[in-house]
Design goal:
- Its cofactor is heme.
- One of its GO terms (molecular function) is iron ion binding.
- Keywords: Heme, Iron, Metal-binding, Monooxygenase, Oxidoreductase.
- The chain is α+β, with helices and mostly antiparallel strands.
- The protein has one domain: Orthogonal Bundle (Cytochrome p450), CATH 1.10.630.10.
- It contains 20 helices and twelve strands.
- It starts with a helix and ends in a 9-residue tail after the last strand.
- The structure holds protoporphyrin IX containing FE.
- The site of protoporphyrin IX containing FE (HEM) has 23 residues, from helix 7, helix 14 and helix 20.
- The site of protoporphyrin IX containing FE has 23 residues, from helix 7, helix 14 and helix 20.
Length: 539
Amino acid sequence: MTASVSRLAALANWLRLYLARTGRGTRVAMALAGAVAALAAILAAETARKRPKYRGAVEAPERSWIVGHGIMFLTTHETRNDWAFYLARNHLDLGEGHTSHLTAPFAPPLIFTTSPANVEHVLKTKFDNYVKGPVFADHQTQLLGHGIFNTDGDAWRAQRKTSSMIFSVRNFRDHMLHVFSRHARVLVDKLDTVAARGTVVDLHDWFHRFTLDAFMEIGFGTPVDSLQADAPLPFATAFDQAQSITSKRMIMGPVQRRILEWWNGDAKRLQQCIKVTDDFAYRLIAQRRADPNAGNAQDLLARFLAMKKPGSNQGYSDEELRDVVINFIIAGRDTTAQALSWAIFELAQHPKVVAAMREEIARIVPTAFDSTTDDGENLDYDAVTRDLVYVRAVFSEALRLHPSVPQEIKFAIHADTLPDGTPVRAGDGIIWSPYAMGRLTELWGDDALEFKPERWIGENVPQPGPYKYPVFNAGPRTCLGQQMAYLEGVACLVKLVSKFEFEVVNPDEVTYRTALTLLMKNGLKVRVRRYVSPAPVAA
Ligand code: HEM
């Protein structure tokens, strides 16, 4: 921002000196007016070209003359998800349904929907017609390369097949649960120390370190022990910043984003961040290639190292493995760390929910309250994956209001019609917002904005299904790690809630930073106290 202002000031100063020296004020003013008029005409024509010309295509509100929703896109970046909710709410209140059009000069034409039927159509029924495509690739390739989040077709299928091998029930039960429990134990010990001192900690940062440590072991067979370090790893800081910069591109055309990023310095910042994340990934790959025992390992990277590329006799190159590492760190670290952060944020404001969790934990895994035993290794798999119904509901409910992937986009290959009758042209982008969908009374009832795990529980309570609740995506590209996320999230919540009380010291500052995932912009600063469970009443 400051750089932009000083560039503008320098330009104005140069113009002032030039006019004073040459005495060409009138001619320059006329030329400038002509240039502004020409630019306005180009922008208006470009925006009009993107506008739907057929009946039944309703434009989203908040449209400006000449640039469509362009100004809204730019000015609402910081509050992107709430803007999506506002847009959906406003559109529904106007009686215009769940789907609207967004237009801006040089951006791809976009259809924004919160309709579960439309989401099902895009993610499952017409899966082959809706792809990540070249626009998404233009935005994300710098960071994600050709990893699983940023590919379609055979390249995606091959990566999905290889990576799905680690997500087996046997691996969950015999390996992952123990890894999560062990790293959660480190977190508990650290929290114990700060509870004794009464210091404030940023739990958001600690959760990212916890999930990174666990995933580095599970995914790449390489411990990093970042929870033990005094500060976040430089890699992690660079990674978060790179995500934030690339997510701004979501609604920009290629020319527009290049100019803007050059102007505001993001282009240079992104390059620097990617250098840090790449160095981290390449070091990891070199270590594994040099490890004589790597051949016996069963982790994700080991499987890719041992694999030949589809239709070829060659193994994956370092560049391709770099893409695997970066994509899976986003998948395995960020999403679950953020779900845990938002869950604790909600729990700190809902003591009755915490009491209900403790009641369930006391019934099903009572050893969790015992600080003298290392319950870490002993958490029961069936308890975590099946019996702790209320704790699981807390995790689902936190994700409903705060989905780790708050917004998604796919592009149409061929013209089509959505189930609600909205026509789609070839090349149109379809955006849906799990964040907005999770808050709509039309989908969740009058108490949609309340944090209420009870809504998930009960014999006759229908589960929402993945299209009304597309938090884990759905269809052939459904999240591969959903079960793993619940395993990690529930195990961690059991340990934390049975041992600590959390007071959020910056509740008014807690908000998201617009990025691919739902990072907390100012962290989650908490004061921690040891929870002492009441002594059992003698019968
Ligand atoms: C609360 C936690 C999680 C949430 C909310 C979540 C959500 C999602 C979403 C929305 C997608 C679709 C992204 C897209 O295509 O643009 C996705 C895909 C994926 N997720 Fe997760 N995820 C979570 C945890 C995990 C974990 C722990 C892993 C394990 C590594 C994982 C692995 C994946 C993979 C590999 C894909 C790509 C699937 C494909 O394109 O075929 N996720 N996830």
